[in-house]
Automatic annotation (TrEMBL):
Residues 3-133 form the Transposase IS4-like domain. It comes from Simkania negevensis (strain ATCC VR-1471 / DSM 27360 / Z). InterPro entries: Transposase_11 (IPR002559). The keyword Transmembrane applies. It comes from the Bacteria. This is Transposase. GO terms for molecular function: DNA binding; transposase activity.
Amino acid sequence: MLIDKNGNAIAITTTDAKGDEKQEVSRLLTQLPLKSLKGRVVVLEADKGYDAGWLRQFLLNMGIFPLIPYRKIKGRWAPEINEVTHFFKLSPQRWKVERAFAWLKRRCRRLLMRWERLFVIWNGLVILGVVYTWIKNLVG
């Protein structure tokens, strides 16, 4: 799930449990109309599970600043967040992603457990839950 700065989902996909989530980021980003964001700073924040050199290069080629912490691997140097973002104020916002998942689970209890056997039905329920969350957040 990709979210905006307010915690609203802007792109979502569902995969099987053994899928590579790093691959899904590139698929989700290619679906978004990023041409409308030209001239603006776009930051993609993710957790350590998305630490991959090819993903960082892919994001930079798209004009997106990757704010992804490096995994602690013995013998490998990794910069701290204040070293990377010393030119501008940027603080971790991972809690917004967790809040978006909590909104989906709380407002759409059907998404807590996957009972549907057909992927099309499950994906439709997930998208319906995202639309409901958007409407709820916009209306209040």
